[in-house]
């Protein structure tokens, strides 16, 4: 069984985001980038399947500039067999990413396309669903547990009301939620071995992918600073203050 798993280059979650002075976006130059945390969970899950004998080959894919190879090398250090880099310096909208993944899935013919439920830079939470729709494959999003059984997968997914269990036919698209697993720490020997593993370069044009209409960012701004709180001496004073603010 072949598994495709997507990884995205994003600003590291530990970095304090800074807004550009002109409000055109966030500062990225000189800022640490890492694999999107939800994609890291997806890669870990794919590797657990391979180690358990459920998957024969795991192929990591990414879309982005030359620097995105760094995240592919991380996926290879996890143990992925191959990596595919769809090179572009343009911003990638979810629909464009979904079209790329559709083309790669048709070429690679995986049983499972595994990806993070969303990226922490844009929080769109759209690519997995769009990919499944374009491929006309079953989908299970927000997965917190996955059991593979031949031509089907049993997926426990997190929803507002609690947990929902789905049985889907394969091939299918599954997106990983936070509680699916805890990714391993990469060891130096694995990082060194990853440098020798192949990365296949391709492009949107090579895949015949039409770019989706671009969104225009009008302005980026930091959230307003939170004001200081006040102390009240009694319940009556608390109620009075809440009434003043129109909260009661």
From TrEMBL:
Keyword Transport in record: yes
Keywords, sorted A to Z: Electron transport, Transport
Species of provenance: Salinisphaera shabanensis E1L3A
Domain of life, source organism: Bacteria
Name of the protein: Electron transfer flavoprotein subunit beta
Cited function: The electron transfer flavoprotein serves as a specific electron acceptor for other dehydrogenases. It transfers the electrons to the main respiratory chain via ETF-ubiquinone oxidoreductase (ETF dehydrogenase).
Family of this protein: Belongs to the ETF beta-subunit/FixA family.
Cofactor(s) the protein requires to work: AMP
Gene name of the encoded protein: etfB
Entries under PANTHER family matching the protein: ELECTRON TRANSFER FLAVOPROTEIN BETA-SUBUNIT, ELECTRON TRANSFER FLAVOPROTEIN SUBUNIT BETA
Lineage of the organism: Bacteria, Pseudomonadati, Pseudomonadota, Gammaproteobacteria, Salinisphaerales
Residue intervals of the Electron transfer flavoprotein alpha/beta-subunit N-terminal domain: 23-211
Gene Ontology MF terms in the entry: electron transfer activity
InterPro entries (alphabetical): ETF_a/b_N (IPR014730), ETF_b (IPR012255), ETF_beta_N (IPR033948), Rossmann-like_a/b/a_fold (IPR014729)
Subunit structure, interactors included: Heterodimer of an alpha and a beta subunit.
SUPFAM superfamilies xrefs: Adenine nucleotide alpha hydrolases-like
